[in-house]
Structure formats: C-alpha cells, structure tokens
Write a structure and sequence with these properties.
Strand order of the largest sheet: 1-3-2
Structural class: alpha+beta
Shape: elongated
Helix content: 40-55%
CATH topology of the largest domain: GMP Synthetase, Chain A, domain 3
Number of domains: 3
Distance between the termini: 28 Å
CATH superfamily of the largest domain: K homology (KH) domain
Strand content: 15-25%
Number of helices: 6
Length: 228
C-alpha cells in the first residue's frame, strides 16, 4: 500500500475517516493535508460537495532507528568524507576573512558534524536559522557530489541549535497549556522539518494534546489541538 493517498468526501471529516479506515490506523499516525475543497456558488448549490484530503503515513520511528543502526560506515569512507567537508569549510572560512572564526569537524554515527564559533557571526545563522540551514544544505550537496555515502552533514553555529530547540520546546508547552485552557486549536508559524519534529516530540506524551502538520513545504505548519 502507498504511504500517501488521496481520499474524497462531502466533508473533510468524512474524507479523513475514509483514509483512516483504508490505512487501518488512528489519526495520530498520519499527516493530513486538505488539497481541494470546492468553492460553493449559487449556480453549484445543487452539485454534490467534494473535499479531497491527502493523507501520509508517518514514519515508524522504531523502524527508522533500526534502519539507521544497520548503516555501516567504513573507516576509510568516514575519513574521506570528513576530509571533503573540512576542505570546503576551510575554504569557506578563508573567503569570509574572519580571523576569529573557528571550526571543528567530527563524525558520529552516520553524521559528520561541523561546528562554527566566533564573534559577530550571527549573519551566518540568519533569521530563524535560514542561512545556517542553507549552508548545511550546501555542505551536504558538496559531499554527495564528491562521493557516494550514507553520511550526512549537520551544521551548528555558536550553539544555535540547542538554543532553538529550547525555544521551540518552551513554545510547545506554552501553546499546549493555552489550548487545554481555551479548548481552541492553535496553528504555529511555518517551520522546517527538524523544527516541527521538536514540537511533535515534546508534546507526544501529553495525553490531552495532539499535533499534526498541514500545508506544503516550505510553508508547512503544526496544528496543536485537544484530543477528542
């Protein structure tokens, strides 16, 4: 069975119920996106109403973790990948001409971690980490273009990711408490996949709250609501 399917109904609820029945899962096991909802007009008032929703099965975290554990990285492959990434980072820093900017490249499991530190380098982070994420994407592209490997590059600058994680977790708790108090769902601003994952993870143990994502990248958002 495909992981993503489209279902139709007279209402979004009906379409979602069809999808859950087809997938044989509960609502918290899928991502739901309304992709088409007809606009009613006077001339179409007698036409059957059709709502289409796209439903995608969420990844089995246990299986994903198991798959990652099975990834075997040879030492020569790891060494070559580290060298490629370090050479690029070194050249990148030289072009910035910032003598106070330092870097560290190390590998752990299936990741090559790049850490940048220095003064007055917030411009490398950008608004909500946009520049940091763009540099990380470039690093991964450079590595993939140079060699075939399962290794992935992660970038952190001046501890930004730890700070961002704490900020998002605090936000998740505040919004969840508000939803419980008011009973009204809250839709957060668009976030990158790893940021949405932080929100989902923080609230997954909350027995009163459910979270799901809506919209398309890069404008995908999290909705926090009460469990029914």
């Amino acid at each position: 069975m495909p992981k993503t399917m489209i279902f139709e109904g007279k209402t979004s609820t009906e379409a979602i119920e069809k999808g859950l029945k087809e997938f044989k899962v509960s609502k918290d096991k899928v991502d739901i996106k309304i992709i088409e909802e007809d606009k009613r007009s006077f001339f179409s008032i007698l036409t059957p109403r059709i709502v289409k929703v796209e439903m995608t099965l969420k990844e089995d975290k246990k299986q994903v973790h198991k798959d990652r554990e099975n990834i075997k990285i040879e030492e020569n492959e790891r060494h070559e990948a580290e060298k490629i990434v370090e050479n690029f980072v070194k050249e990148f820093i030289e072009k910035l001409q910032n003598e106070e900017l330092t870097y560290e490249v190390k590998s752990k499991d299936e990741y090559i971690e790049v850490i940048l530190n220095g003064k007055n380098i917030s411009y490398l982070i950008g608004y909500r980490g946009e520049t940091l994420n763009a540099i990380q994407t470039i690093l991964n592209s450079v590595l993939k273009n140079k060699m075939k490997t399962a290794l992935r590059v992660t970038l952190d600058i001046c501890g930004y990711k730890d700070e961002r994680k704490k900020t998002l977790e605090d936000l998740a708790v505040r919004v969840a408490n508000s939803v419980i108090k008011t009973g009204k769902s809250v839709t957060l601003d668009p976030m990158r996949p790893y940021e949405r994952k932080i929100i989902h993870s923080k609230l997954q143990e909350n027995s009163k709250i459910r979270t799901h994502s809506v919209g398309e990248e890069p404008y995908r958002k999290i909705v926090i609501s009460l469990k029914k």
